[in-house]
Structure formats: C-alpha cells, structure tokens
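FW: tagging you since you asked about this chain on Friday. Here's the raw sequence from the shared folder, copied in full. Didn't touch anything.
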Amino acid sequence: MTLKEAVELATTTLSTISDSAKLDAQLLLCHVCKIKQTKIIAHPEQALNEQQLEIFTSTLNRRAKGEPLAYITGTKEFWSLELMVNEQVLIPRPDTELLVELALKEISNIDTPRILELGTGSGAIAVALAKERENCDITATDISLPALELAKLNAKQHQADITFIHSDWYKSVPEKKYDVVISNPPYISISDTELDQFVSQYEPKQALLSEKNGLHALTEIIKNTPNYLLRTGSLIVEHGFQQADLVSELFANANYNNVSTHKDLAGNLRCTMGNT
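HL: got it, structure written out here
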C-alpha cells in the first residue's frame, strides 16, 4: 500500500466520525511512518512496509471507533507547541488559547508577573505562558498526580520554569499573592445529555464534569481567588458559552471589578475575567 492509498483508505474510513477525516488520515500516517505531511505530498507513491501497514491498520481501527487522535499519537499542538497528552488529561483545545491571550495582556506591563494556574492538566496553559514570558513566576496545580507528572514532562520538554503543586483547587496552595489566577476548570453539567459521545467515552470525566449544573468548580474558584490576588490582580476562567451570564453574576457577587466576557474562535462567549 502506498502513502496515497493509505490516506485515501483512512479518509473514507473516518468520514463518518470525523469532520477532518483527511487531516486525521494524514496525521495518523505521519505518526506511524515517522514522516512529515510534506512527504505524503512529495512522494505519494512510497510504499508502507509490512510493520508500518500493520500499525497503521491498528491505529486506524482505534480512530474509527472514536478514540481521539491526540491519544493515539500521544501529542497535541497548543499555542504552536507540541505537547504530550494521554488519557489522564483533557486534550487541549484551540479555544483555550484565549485564556493565554488574555493573561498575556494582563501581565504586559508587569516586570516579573506572578501567575497561578488551577487545574493545569497537561500543563498547556502554564507552558505557553512560560514560553511567552520567560521572567514569569508561574505555579500550576492539579488534583490528579498522573496529570501533574505529564505536565512536568511537558514543562521539561519545553524548558519552562514552572512550580507544580498537587492540590484540590486552593487547598494545598501556600498563602501567596498573584497578579493573575487562571483556570479552565470542569464546567460541563453532570446531567448534560448533549456531551459528545466520544469525548464522554475517552476523556477524563474529572476534567470535564462539575456538579451544580457545571458551576460547582467555577463557584469555588471565583469565591476563593480574591484571597490570592495582589491589589488589582485578575482572575480569568474558561466556561461554557451558555454559562456566560451566570459566571458574570458569580464574579459580581464576589465583588470583582471590571468584569468582562470574551469570545472564542467560533464567536462563543468562552472566558470571563475580573479584577479585585
């Protein structure tokens, strides 16, 4: 089987479960054959050897059953950084890059900003911020030890200086003041019946689901963060677009100032922030 034939086969196979079947096919093939996408275009006639064909067939079957591509390849790009991912962490989404953008704006005039990320998962947000601002003092937490271990590996891979703490939100965070606290907490309601079947099946529910209509984690973070912010410090959180008004209300009830909500790449209200 040639590279071209492999892409055609995989594209057809994945067309019913993926909106980006051809891209998925190419990335699977690149992963198996350890080649760049340009190689597929430049040398479509190159044949897969027996071992490559066997692995490609196996990985294609996994993807066809709905397993996320990132878990199969073990990597996901975020903020133009290639990060390691596995089933212990939520797969970083492009929309979450908005959190990074907002945080960078908040610290643009601070010489050595202090940043705390709650629920770091793969470490994507913290690593992205560390790469953009090398003089940052960044602390990142997670309740999951396996997630923290992966985040540490990503930080090491990208030479990002980050302090990691095993903590359930603020429970084990030392008393310290930050310029920015940032979080993409679980915000999907446990009773949500519209959650994508494959997301529900493969990604860690601890990183997705929250009680009280998806607002439990957000409520805890918004309520407790003022104790950890420097004067005029900012809290920035991600949430579901249908939760925007409720989250803004939580900020207002906790006496934040300058509360604002921002749209993601699709134009949905995705992040809310406020100052103390």
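FW: The chain has two domains: 3-66, 88-275.
HL: agreed, and Residues 50-64 form the longest helix (15 residues).
FW: great, closing this out.
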